[in-house]
Amino acid sequence: MADYDYDLFVIGAGSGGVRAARLTALDGKRVAVAEEFRVGGTCVIRGCVPKKFMVMASEVSHALEIAEGYGWSFADATFDWPKFLEAKDVEIARLSGIYAANLGKAGVELVHGRAVLKDAHTVEIIGKDRTITAEKILIATGGRPWKPESLPGIEHAITSEEAFHLPELPKRILIAGGGYIAVEFAGIFAGLGVETTLIYRGPNILRGFDDDVRAHLAGEIEKRGIKVVLGCQHEKIEKTETGLVNHLENGMKLETDVVMFATGRIPYVKDLGLESAGVELNDAGAIRVDEYSRTTADNIWAIGDVTDRMNLTPVAIREAVAFHQTVYRDNPQHFDYEAVATAVFSQPPVGVVGLSEAEARRSCSNGVDVYVTRFRPMKYAFTGSDERVLMKLVVDADSQRVVGVHIVGPDSPEMIQLAAIAVKAGLTKAQWDATCAVHPTMAEELVTLKEKQSPATSAG
Fold first, then answer.
1. How far apart are CA 323 and CA 106, in angstroms?
2. What is the pLDDT of residue 459?
3. Nearest CA to 143 among 276, 240, 287, 275?
4. Which is nearest to 53 in space by CA: 67, 63, 43, 62?
5. What is the pLDDT of residue 57?
6. Can you give the chain as a three-state secondary structure string?
7. Partners of residue 375 on adjacent β-strands
């Protein structure tokens, strides 16, 4: 057997790459991981974690409004953007340090630099005059924001990555996009007092989600002061002395201080040297892999967002575990992508697991039963707010299995994690109904829904 520097070399120290490297090193293998930026990857450094901090900071303003209905007074409440950024950056640095320390404890060598494939067993660390060989290579480079580079004035726009480091909080912002990142940042900036406009070229936000969820959330975020413009996109961005003028296809002109594009993310494969190693891309520009995450090169695997299968941090981690079990434990495994719960940290948030109503109608041969409720939660009823919660169960008419759960409202991400256990286990509507409610809670509605929605009123 050839003598390599390492048994495994991992490109990318995000959540998936770090997990795979640690598990393999703990098995006694020689492992190194290269990271060109900071250990922790998108989730820890420029994604889920800092975004959730921003969501929590922005939710305080709404909490203060609710508190006044309960007799509290906060007449002098203010928000300090620079102070928040400093605290956020300190915490992100701490978390990145923990990731790096855990690699070291497991015996993984951390290589700071950009790794580029020279052939199927060799990588070069750019600018470090170092070439490394490895028996096996794992690519876990994640994804990066995409924006339309051909749009006139696009150089004046930012993406989610720059939004984490704005030197000052803008007074006005326009966010282009209708996916979860766009919706989440719209809620963040609106909650921090920024005049916020969300534009999206499609007929409604959150394409791919259940239609009832999409319609309900669109109405609820407008109650939070977000202006939503649908069926529209940019013609150009013009920089003036007073701001950025957004020229839209419908003839509107909106001046803002910041323009943010949240129009999708793409696999980070640029200049990675994939062709030199025999690693092919699929039609969508992601690394082509089989169900066990093996690429078209026999000794190279890929996991996480760079494969564009299901772009969620916990999924990348599970793919890493499956890779380790398959390659180093002689226990072939692949991740099961069915019934994976997800949350949108919009305001109000969304929790989803399983099939939308439309998906279920296509896959359930004899139709579906749909249960929907919309109500004003107890917290808001006391204060007079007109915000409402949506809860929806989608049930296979034949087996009576609950195949989809959709929630829009406070604490829905917390509820959906537990609902996912029941959906993954294949429990029936009767078993949900047999579960005693916890009262008074919003979650009790999930086990007390009795009236089926008629097909005539169904969104699917």
1. 18
2. 53
3. 287
4. 43
5. 97
6. CCCCCEEEEEECCCHHHHHHHHHHHHCCCCEEEEECCCCCHHHHHHCHHHHHHHHHHHHHHHHHHHHHHCCCCCCCCCCCHHHHHHHHHHHHHHHHHHHHHHHHHHCCEEEECCEEEEECCEEEECCCCEEEEEEEEEECCCEEECCCCCCCCHHHCECHHHHCCCCCCCCEEEEECCCHHHHHHHHHHHHCCCEEEEEECCCCCCCCCCHHHHHHHHHHHHHCCCEEEECCCEEEEEECCCCEEEEECCCCEEEECEEEECCCEEECCCCCCHHHHCCCECCCCCECCCCCCECCCCCEEECHHHHCCCCCHHHHHHHHHHHHHHHHCCCCCCCCCCCCCEEECCCCCEEEEECCHHHHHHHCCCCEEEEEEEECCHHHHHHCCCCCEEEEEEEECCCCEEEEEEEECCCHHHHHHHHHHHHHHCCEHHHHHCCCCCCCCCHHHHHCCCCECCHHHCCC
7. 389
Task: For residue 112, give every residue at least 6 positions away whose Cβ sits within 8 Å of its Cβ, in sequence order, or none.
Answer: 34, 35, 36
What is d(CA 14, CA 140) in angstroms, rounded to the nearest whole number? 7
Which pTM value belongs to this model? 0.94
Q: What is the pLDDT of residue 456?
A: 56
Catalytic residues: 439
Above pLDDT 70, what percent of the chain? 98
